[in-house]
Amino acid sequence: MTWWQDRIVEAGKEPVALCLVAFIATFLLTRLVTRTIRSGRGPFRNNVSSTGLHIHHAVPGLFLLLAGALTSLASYDSTSLNIAGLCVGAGASLVLDEFALILHLRDVYWARQGRASVQAVALAGMVMGLTLLGFTPENVDELTDRNAPVRWATVAILLTSFVCCLICAAKGKYRLVVLAAIVPIVAYVGAVRLARPGSPWYRRYPEGSRKQVRARGRAGGFDRHIAHGLTWFGDLVAGAPSREDAAAESAERAAVLVAPSQEEDDPVRSGHGSRSSS
Questions:
Q1: CA atoms of 211 and 223, how far apart (whole Å)
Q2: What is the pTM of this model?
Q3: Are 181 and 137 in contact (CB under 8 A)?
Q4: Domain boundaries defined on the chain
Q5: Cβ burial, residue 199 (10 Å; 0-12/13-18/19+)
């Protein structure tokens, strides 16, 4: 195809493109297999040995990641780099599909906590896509510029972006932190907007203040109109959690948005009320 040759191969983006294709294809195939296992249909089974050993697909994913990384480091030709891109894409997909298990140190694949894996895959795929389109992390080449004003301006921009990312994290906007590595202006916007209810920054707002009311209103609107749609699409592609977990999630979201003061007064629950948002 002419466009592939002109826009991808000639531009030196073929390894990244193959990495993205392998990443998406592996995720979709993995979810198809796990959903057939969950429903009891198809030839696949959730095999566990007599010793109770179960090899999660993050294990072969780690080996593929390692193989891809070593191949890319030792590569001197385009074919080897393309193979490395395929290995990295497939391996990263297998590992991130088990991200929730690694995060919680228990099998929550079909629990509501398992949605963290789908979100991690979506964010990683978005970053790969932006990289393929030409967006890259902030350029630090200017740091070696002999022009002192340019060098110090670059340092100031990098430090400002880093501080804004920290503020976004404190405000419960974790997805924005990932995107900010590619599109820095996202961090600046997220840093000046109100915090998510339950986040550390939200607890700084005076009880019953206008900021608290506005923050709950914005979070509720985001959850109803945007987050709900994203969750629905994620469940459609990757499979929905069990009904009990879905009901518990709805109750938890309502408790955070409607009565956040109760969560803040309870030191045990306050650490579990944070919900990420962009």
A1: 18
A2: 0.71
A3: yes
A4: 2-133, 137-191, 194-278
A5: buried
